[in-house]
# Entry
Amino acid sequence: MKIIKLTLMSFAVAAITLSSCSAPKKVPYLVDADRIPPEVLSATSSVADPILTVGDLLNIEVTGVNMAAMAPFNKGKYIDTEGKIGTISRTSNSYNQTGLEVSTEYYLVNADGCIEFPIIGKIRVAGLTKAQVASEICDAIYPKYVTEKPSVDIRLMNFRVTVAGAVKSPGVYQSKNERMTFLEAISMAGDLDIKGDRENIFLYRTNPDGTREVHKLNIHDRSFLLSPYYTLQQNDYIYVQPNKSMRQNAWQMNPAVASTITIVGGMSSLASLVIGIVNLTKN
# Structure
């Protein structure tokens, strides 16, 4: 009986030891990143201009020395009878009751990948960079409508990514400067949970042409700093898997197996009771 008890205790200790071992060496990010040679880091490609896609909200401003001539090409602006520039009362900085920013002055890239631009009409922008769209707008305005070459500034107003899974604050996070790295997104989400798997993080991406990509990321590895997926694109979806320990805790036993274990446990208890009675009788 003592041998059986010792055996069971040994199994229990081993199970606890294995389950509590969270591989602490795998918890930190970018281990030994300081060992990456500076020339390798500097050779990494710089952040590219975002590729515009369906659903993007654009703020486009056309300016020049003669602003009166440029006003008709700016959404929400007009020339009054005195030749002064007027502005429609709607503003993109106001908020509605739901807390969402009013986008009446923005250009929405529709399902066809186009925007409707004042005077010029429909312009296809999906699949292009902001610089390419700005150049196209400039060429369409000058010299056909104005005598000076305008300056066209385009800003992407809804650059956002979604972070879900084993993080402290899952949610949708927006960038005001049209840029976001993976580490910035994770920081916005309150950092990874201690039980988040650093070596099996999934990045789901929808490209401007509608194709989709799935990439597995390992942020424990310092080489992730050199990865093309370190810099995110708008509408990227990050899913942090729970680590092995967390998945085991969430495992549900098959009912048939659970019933068998219950029966065996009951038989074991009954056997222990019988042995106890026998021992008392001998005494």
